[in-house]
UniProtKB/TrEMBL annotation:
Name the record gives this protein: Protein kinase domain-containing protein
Keyword Nucleotide-binding carried by entry: yes
Record flagged with keyword Repeat: yes
Location(s) in or outside the cell: Cell membrane
Spans through the membrane: 179-203
Membrane topology note: Single-pass membrane protein
Residues reported in the UniProt entry to bind ATP: K267
Top-level taxonomic group: Eukaryota
Length: 279
């Protein structure tokens, strides 16, 4: 009979293997941590009634924590940190009277901390840090021991025992009011001011004379007259330093027309090459 299943620190992918639940009810340790397992946590874990340790840390598991885990009365250790779990912490976990370690850190859990967890007298390590949990922290049981509880990274938590050094719930309420003010008042004002500035710059742009560009779209059918002297001056007498490249029919130079104040590319055809004058 299989009692321990430890396949942690592999590169397992896909969903949690269903074969685990065909091992019978004798499995006491199930360790699947540090893999690339995806999908939700199966409710069939509740069939493993003798399960003592469940390790699912550092995977890509999503969805909610099954409330059916509360039926595994022998559970002492639950580790599900470093996943992307959502939803609330199940109230049914308070049925696990032998629970010692509970780690849900670094997920996306929401809701509040079930007050009933304070009734678990053997619980000596609770880590729910870096989630989206909010509300008032229970005051009894494990929550009286600041070294046994980790709550960091949950912006909405408040209250609890004094030695936890968490903000009072009135402070959290003030933060929410401030956030409400920012969203409903300040941000629209900033948006309105930005609109005014945009209109101002558009009007200013309309009054500013634009440079003339030697482009068909800019000039239409009218191009400025340019003499050979203008081209020679623009390219420093067709200097090698202004040479961009040579092709089959001539060379291309870069230059700057003084009057138009723009950069141009000037192609000089080699008339000794046949058909160059047709280009």
């Amino acid at each position: 009979m299989l009692r321990t299943l430890n396949i942690s620190y592999n590169n397992l992918q896909g969903n949690i293997p269903r074969k685990i639940f065909h091992t019978g009810s004798t499995l006491t340790i199930c360790a699947l941590s540090y893999n690339n397992l995806q999908g939700t946590i199966p409710t069939e874990f509740s069939n493993l009634r003798q399960l003592v340790e469940l390790h699912l840390s550092s995977n890509k598991l999503s969805g909610e924590i099954p409330g059916a885990l509360g039926e595994c009365q022998e559970l002492q250790i639950i580790r599900m940190d470093q996943n992307i779990l959502t939803g609330d912490i199940p109230e049914s976990l308070s049925n696990l009277k032998s629970l010692v370690v509970l780690n849900f850190s670094h997920n996306s859990l929401s809701g509040s901390i079930p007050t009933s967890l304070s009734d678990l007298k053997y619980l000596n390590q609770l880590d729910v840090s870096y989630n989206h949990i909010h509300g008032e922290i229970p005051r009894n049981g494990i929550f009286e021991n600041e070294t046994a509880v980790s709550l960091n990274g949950n912006w909405g938590l408040c209250g609890g025992a004094v030695n936890l050094h968490m903000p009072t719930c009135s402070t959290i309420s003030q933060r929410k009011e401030t956030l409400y003010y920012l969203v409903r008042v300040f941000i629209p004002l900033v948006g309105f001011a930005s609109l005014i500035l945009l209109i101002y710059f558009v009007l200013l742009e309309g009054k500013t004379p634009r440079r003339t560009y030697l482009l068909l779209l800019s000039f239409g059918k009218h191009f400025p007259r340019v003499t050979y002297g203008d081209l020679a001056q623009a390219t420093q007498s067709f200097s090698e330093s202004n040479l961009v490249g040579r092709g089959s029919y001539g060379s291309v130079y870069r230059g700057k027309l003084t009057q138009a104040k723009i950069q141009v590319a000037i192609k000089v055809f080699d008339l000794d090459v046949r058909y160059a004058d047709d280009r």
